[in-house]
Write the structure tokens for this entry.
Amino acid sequence: MLMPFPRIASRLRPLSALAIVPFLAGCGELVVLDPAGDIARQQGDLIVISTLLMLLIIIPVMALTIFFAWRYRAANKEATYKPDWDHSTQLELVIWAAPLLIIICLGAITWVATHLLDPYRPLARTDVDKPVVAEVKPLDVNVVALDWKWLFIYPEQGIATVNELAVPVDRPVRFRISASSVMNSFYIPAMAGQIYAMPAMETKLHGVMNEPGDFMGFSANYSGAGFSNMRFAVKSLDDAAFDKWIAQAKGAGGTLDRAAYLQLERPSEKEPVRRFATVEPGLFDLVVNLCVEPGKMCMHDMMAADARGGMGLAGIHNVRDLAYDKFAARGTAAVRPVRYVASTCTTPMASPAQLPINPVDHQPLTGQGLSRPGDAPHGTSLALFDNRGPVSRPAF
């Protein structure tokens, strides 16, 4: 029942575009209704279909309003005058049945489209009558929303760019999206719908470009002073042009490692396009787990320790000062004395024959079962940190 709708929407798309031109006159182009990607085109069809279904009620109501105002005007003596009329079964059926049918149609279309256009769902096609074959590998792009710029990491190609995204035509693109501080929204109208970028979380988006050209992406969620200029260039290239773009990025020089990322994520506005020839492996996962700073425990390691019951007394001093406060807008406010859990590690387990034989110390232990400072523990230990540096504590 729902199959003909996309074809109808495609044919009636110009009429729908004309209907909303007055509302989008300042946008420059109707990219939402005339996108370059298959996913965005299907989403545009939903707008057209929904608009047409609602017009089935709006147009007759507006026409009947004018008709009744003219037909039953005071000067028309031929109109039937019934001041005590208050019910009509036929009219009630029309008034309630028509909207109900439209709501049912909208609900069915929305339910189907919600599953077919799920941003986490891998693409089943790149265009109409072009299914994705098993041999086609999606292009992986890691996206980080910074203040106030966008970082794109290409793990397969080993490059990274700032405020510039290039994708090949007719090849599925798989985005992994996160943020460094506040929540943003990743949106390329010509390619696919928007999806949120949140710190310490990862969202996914699948899309494709079917036409070469230059487009625009931006943040669709207000994120502070530099939000208005948080835009990036989107290049849809054929395979040869995409390979050339990759080669240009590799020839640009520069390495995006932890230190470079920590400098890059500081708030800045109107950041120019920048390219990095190499990227530190696993950098995006460090961003998601909030542990780009050297020595800081990653979020997944902390959750794993908590799942095992925590670190007990051994973790009391397992904190270090965070000089660059993530919760104070990344350096835009006075730094507060924030502390974070440092990384942990375990020494390899030694066999009994390899353990050193130390003389027994009969003096009382200080602390709650902890060895005195300077004593080397035996067996497994936790390498912890306090404000002075690494301190050894026995494992519990």
Observations:
- The CA atoms of residues 74 and 81 lie 10 Å apart.
- The chain is about 30% helix and 25% strand.
- The chain has a mean pLDDT of 77.
- The two ends are 64 Å apart (CA to CA).
